[in-house]
Amino acid sequence: MDDQPSFLEKPAVRASIRFALMLVAYFILTAFLLWDESNLNAAGSTDLLRQTQERRLLAETVDFAFLFGGIVFWLIFFSQFILPVRTLEQRLAIIDRMMSYFSGGHGPAIFIENGNVRARQEERQKRGPGVLWLDSASAAILRTATKFTRTIGPGIHFTTKDEYIAASVDLHPLTQGVGPNDNENPFIVEKTDPDYQAIQSRAWETRGMTRDGINVVAALSVTFRIDAAPNEGGSRYGYHAENTRRAITEAIVQGAQTDQPVWNPLPAKMAVDVWREYLARFRLSQLFEIPEGKEKTNLQIIGELVSRRMREDEVDSLDDVGNFTGLAVHSLEAQKMREMGIKVSGVNIKRLIFPKEIEDQLVSSWTTSWEKNAKKERELIDSKRRQAEEKGQVDALLEFANVSTAEFQQTLPRNKVHMLYMFVHGTAQAVIRNAGLIKKMPKTDTALLTEIARWLKDKV
Predict the structure, then answer these.
(1) Whose CA is closest to 100, among 127, 122, 119, 69?
(2) Neighbouring-strand partners of residue 315
(3) Could you give the CA distance from residue 204 to residue 217 in angstroms, rounded to a whole number?
């Protein structure tokens, strides 16, 4: 009851009092002018003067009515051009909000850009009928004091009494980082550093342990967005009402700040859990090794598997020591993202941080093993080159066979000599047509093929 305004503080009462005072002031001014005129014309006819005053009062009353009616009419007319309204319902709604504004009972008028609410705090706290304008990259969910009411996307929307913004969201792809910042190392920071606790807190977000018991801290980033098709829902970025509702309400449950564009913390937390799961299956030295038959290190493979677990329904399975089993495992993380209305586009392991002594050991190990790794890469490159050469030879033989026997597809040879002529002639013609490609072949060889073809033709 303490929050209820008094009778005189109610917007409608205050507006009515202002209008009444203006009306009284107008009539007092009119009466004063008429009284002054009566004094100036005291010597004239009393009846004529009274009739003149009555006519003047009537005319001024009509003028005032036309003036007030004109103001109301033009306010109603121009109010529909304030915002890009299209339907009759929207036009009536904006007229109602305009009249509420002049009566003092209006609600908030808010613009939301890229998920950011552009309004003063006192404007956001108003609870009367209001209007919201969302750009093409924004969506929001509305509520009352007791429940969520509806989800809105790009465009013009009108709020009812006591309805306000619960949270807004950016429809662009969002990238959320987790773990230490780029210039932070939790293993060497001094306890006297004023940011010590904050750095350690960020490190614990992604701290994991390898199979041989080595602590590793990672800096990860997750890129995600509310799941929607491009140009869906009147937005070039895509707006899906149900997925937006799921994403925002889940973010609120997870403790996201609703006075900012909703940044759901769950995708990053789930990616970190998957990262720790895979990290625990490898020894530290294995992270930077290239498995047999693979082209990437185990660390790169882990990064791909983490990303796929967040996006795909099934992912290749690893055993407890980091070997592929040949089977597929169902991804609960991707299922959870879909249930939340979120689509993850990628997970990136930006860097790893090790204790100082472990880092020194790794540097020493890399110094002694670089030749072994270089040889393995050289062998891989040589193997690929040999495969490419063999494939090129096979392709060349097939091409030669097709070119040299092209004439056999049109005419069957009559005898062996005719068959030999067709073969030589087809080969010569192919060499002439592709002279620009066969740069190394001497012109004398081309002339010799042509001469042989002529000799054979005479023998046919």
Answers:
(1) 127
(2) 329
(3) 8
Element (H, E) at 48: helix 46-79
Q: What is the pTM of this model?
A: 0.62
Task: Mark out the alpha helices in 231-355 (DSSP H runs).
Answer: 241-253, 266-279, 298-311, 332-339
- Residues 79 and 353: their CA atoms lie apart, in Å, by 60
Most confident of 20-24, 161-165, 271-275: 271-275
CA dihedral 60, 65, 67, 70 (to 10 degrees): -160
> Is 134 strand, coil or helix?
strand
> Helices 332-339 and 266-279 sit at what angle, rounded to 10 degrees?
180
**What pLDDT, in 10s, does the model give residues 206-231?**
999 999 999 999 999 999 999 999 88
432 C-beta neighbours (distance < 10 Å), count: 12
Paired residues of 118 in beta bridges: 111
DSSP labels for 245-275? HHHHHHHHHTT--TTS----SHHHHHHHHHH
pLDDT in tens, 158-211: 888 888 888 899 999 989 899 999 889 999 999 899 999 999 999 999 999 999
Burial profile 376-403: b = 16 or more Cβ within 10 angstroms, e = fewer: eeeeeeeeeeeeeeeeeeeeeeeeeeeb
Domains of the chain by range and CATH?
A: 7-79 (no CATH), 88-170 (no CATH), 174-232+264-354 (3.30.479.30), 405-459 (no CATH)
Rounded average pLDDT over 266-295: 90
Nearest to 144 by CA among 166, 125, 112: 166
